[in-house]
Amino acid sequence: MKTCEIHCGDAATILKKFPDESIDCIVTSPPYYGLRDYGKQEQIGLEKSFDEYLDKILVVTAELKRVLTPAGTLWWNHGDSYGAGNRKTGVEDSLSNKKRISTKHRAQGFDKCLLMQPHRLAIRMIDEQGWILRNEIIWHKPNCMPQSVRDRFTVDFETILFFTKSKKYWFEQQKEALANPNRKNFASGNRTFGKNKDRNDNDLGERSKNYSFPDGRNKRSVWKISTKAFPEAHFAVYP
């Protein structure tokens, strides 16, 4: 049994070679719109319009759904960018903290506006292809590259979308440490507000004492993962 096999080429074309429902887990990240020119005629990301870009991505996601097993999962990492209006560059700057390469393409009608790339794509995947979105995960990058913007905040995260094709799928819950003081505070009850603001919700406190977390709590959906240095000409390597 092969442990690693690399196929180089157009994703939509290569995926057609795989049989239906043959892959259990897919982890991927597409080229983001308007950020980089790879010098290839059929590349994704430099389409004349944002809608055309989404159409091309959806061709790939349709094939991904076909090859994914009923119990399989898709983990889709997708950063965002800002429209550049009438300027020559494709975006104001990249939210993915990747090195930007100027292009002649731009998102029409989105001057300085956050494009919401992952969210627009997710809605179409759900509406048009029947994907089930289980989580929107925030990949927080503590060591993100500085941005020279003056009229908004520096963005230090990317989005990871957790999709399935079936309501029942294979999933192993991940745990993270939970300090004892938090459990004690949770069990002490919540103070209510409004006309009952002087009353503690002791019922919640009593019921919470029945819960224990010997292995930690369920993993949250904000993942703090630093990026790693890479000496080669690749600005989108996984950590």
From TrEMBL:
One of its GO terms (molecular function) is N-methyltransferase activity. Residues 195-209 have a biased composition (Basic and acidic residues). Its EC number is 2.1.1.113. Gene3D superfamilies: Vaccinia Virus protein VP39 (3.40.50.150). It is an enzyme of class 2 (transferase). Transmembrane segments: none annotated. PROSITE patterns: N4_MTASE (PS00093). It catalyses: a 2'-deoxycytidine in DNA + S-adenosyl-L-methionine = an N(4)-methyl-2'-deoxycytidine in DNA + S-adenosyl-L-homocysteine + H(+). The keyword Transferase applies. Residues 181-213 are annotated as: Disordered. Residues 182-193 have a biased composition (Polar residues). GO terms for biological process: DNA restriction-modification system; methylation. It holds the Pfam family N6_N4_Mtase. Residues 23-227 form the DNA methylase N-4/N-6 domain. Keywords: DNA-binding, Methyltransferase, Restriction system, S-adenosyl-L-methionine, Transferase. Belongs to the N(4)/N(6)-methyltransferase family. N(4) subfamily. This is site-specific DNA-methyltransferase (cytosine-N(4)-specific). It comes from marine sediment metagenome.
